[in-house]
Specification:
52% of the residues lie in helices and 18% in strands. With 102 residues, it is of the alpha+beta class.
Length: 102
């Protein structure tokens, strides 16, 4: 049931063996594709909730960064991008000329 939530976004939860701390179960797990996202709790439900919350934060941060990158590149014209890329304008050479020399 809980696994289905992550399967929809093509993520796999790796569950660690249950540990017993002061006679209470401790569930731990992480996302296989994003091992820095971990969760733990006194129940499987609590562990999955923690994983989901951390993944939502991660996804929100990465979505903002992607939008910022798109905005920066869309503000420049093609000529500006070429100048920014190599500092010069196109000089008109062709690959055919380079291959003839060899």
């Amino acid at each position: 049931m809980y696994e289905d939530i992550f399967a929809e976004v093509q993520l796999t939860v790796v569950e660690q063996p249950i540990e017993w701390v002061e006679e209470l179960p401790l569930y731990r797990g992480h996302l296989k594709e994003l091992p820095f996202i971990t969760g733990e709790g006194s129940s499987k439900k609590a562990m999955y909730r923690q994983l989901a919350e951390q993944y939502q934060e991660y996804a929100a941060l990465n979505q903002v960064e992607d939008k910022e990158e798109e905005m920066t590149s869309s503000l420049l014209t093609a000529d500006q991008l070429l100048k920014y890329y190599d500092g010069e304008t196109f000089d008109g050479f062709s690959l055919g000329d380079l291959l003839k020399d060899k």
